[in-house]
Amino acid sequence: MILIRSIRPNRRPASTVLLRPHILYYYSSSAASSAAAVEAERTIRLGPRNDWTRGEIKSIYDSPLLDLLFHGAQVHRHAQNFREVQQCTLLSIKTGGCSEDCSYCPQSSRYDTGLKAQKLMNKDAVLQAAEKAKEAGSTRFCMGAAWRDTIGRKTNFSQILEYVKEIRGMGMEVCCTLGMIEKQQALALKEAGLTAYNHNLDTSREYYPNIITTRTYDDRLETLKHVREAGINVCSGGIIGLGEAEEDRVSLLHTLATLPSHPESVPINALLAVKGTPLEDQKPVEIWEMIRMIATARIAMPKAMVRLSAGRVRFSVPEQALCFLAGANSIFTGDKLLTTPNNDFDADQQMFKLLGLLPKAPSFSEDVVKDFEAESCAEVASSSG
Ligand code: SF4
């Protein structure tokens, strides 16, 4: 399919679609449009929607790869500042010894991965790490604790509220991932200044019991509801390479894209198989699988920050460039992602320079998200053009 910009708007053919008030595009009638092309055009014209059918998401996902990549990039350029990439730093503030049985996770106490369980890090150590991350250009600091939930952890939870307040006071966005939380805890985190709460759905509802048996998919969705109702931004995505079928990847994206509001951040992780976990022999995810996930997520959730997360360390700069082109606009920086290795900081800075990427500034406006929801992509495009 060929996308052509007309220079004679008064001779518009029947197949013309108007994407921006002042720019006219039409599609060549000699080639059939892929689902990615059709849905990307609709997303650009009408803005985000939550009424996706699974069939629609599947047909975007199944589009010819380069066509999907191209249309992911089109939506990305209309809905986001495509040169900006958010840099987040993730710190494990309480490592290992987790009671859950997530098959991919070296922090579960059920698997012998050689990881030593540690207590909650003290305030000085956490704040020092946040300071270092800020100096290195990170605008969001995420704290992860290996817990099933925060119930019965009153003292630790109060300490974390303190960390959130302090880090927010440094001018950084703050995110936490502490397992399942109740509504009251979500409200307390909001009060402390938390920007976002991460709670991944991991995979499809159908495949979930193959990966985790100690909690349910609905438990996950319940926490996301508490986070959303407290007015905290939702960060939720998944992991590919767990042995799931492509249908499961479609199902995961469909669940995320049909939540009452799209998550503000959607991390797409590629499994880094860790020795000692039940998934230690999984074969590595290929870059083409990541591109397919990222571009589909971008078309279905145009306003979300799509985060190229775990597994990035295995991808070359040209491979990462394709991910940014497809619609990824957020990464984790720092030596480690909780307990697994991450990309070298200097190499990331060189990559930014080489690709002409710009670090995204922090955003503290609580109204931004609501405004974005109300505004169509086309309006964003015309005001930025
Ligand atoms: S992913 Fe989280 S909940 Fe699951 S075992 Fe690891 S630390 Fe525990």
Automatic annotation (TrEMBL):
InterPro entries assigned: Aldolase_TIM, BATS_dom, Biotin_synth/BioAB, Biotin_synthase, Elp3/MiaA/NifB-like_rSAM, rSAM, rSAM_sf
Record note on cofactor: Binds 1 [2Fe-2S] cluster. The cluster is coordinated with 3 cysteines and 1 arginine.
Names of the cofactor(s): [2Fe-2S] cluster; [4Fe-4S] cluster
Entry annotated with the keyword Oxidoreductase: no
Recorded GO MF terms: 2 iron, 2 sulfur cluster binding; 4 iron, 4 sulfur cluster binding; biotin synthase activity; metal ion binding
Binding positions for [4Fe-4S] cluster per the UniProt entry: 98, 102, 105
Gene Ontology cellular-component annotations: mitochondrion
GO BP of this protein: biotin biosynthetic process
Keywords: 2Fe-2S, 4Fe-4S, Biotin biosynthesis, Iron, Iron-sulfur, Metal-binding, S-adenosyl-L-methionine, Transferase
Annotated residues for binding of [2Fe-2S] cluster: 142, 175, 235, 307
PROSITE patterns (alphabetical): RADICAL_SAM
SMART domains assigned to the protein according to its UniProt record, in alphabetical order: BATS, Elp3
Signal peptide positions (record): none
Domain Radical SAM core: 83-312
Functional pathway: Cofactor biosynthesis; biotin biosynthesis; biotin from 7,8-diaminononanoate: step 2/2
Superkingdom of source: Eukaryota
Documented EC number(s): 2.8.1.6
Family: Belongs to the radical SAM superfamily. Biotin synthase family.
Name the record gives this protein: biotin synthase
Organism in which the protein naturally occurs: Escallonia herrerae
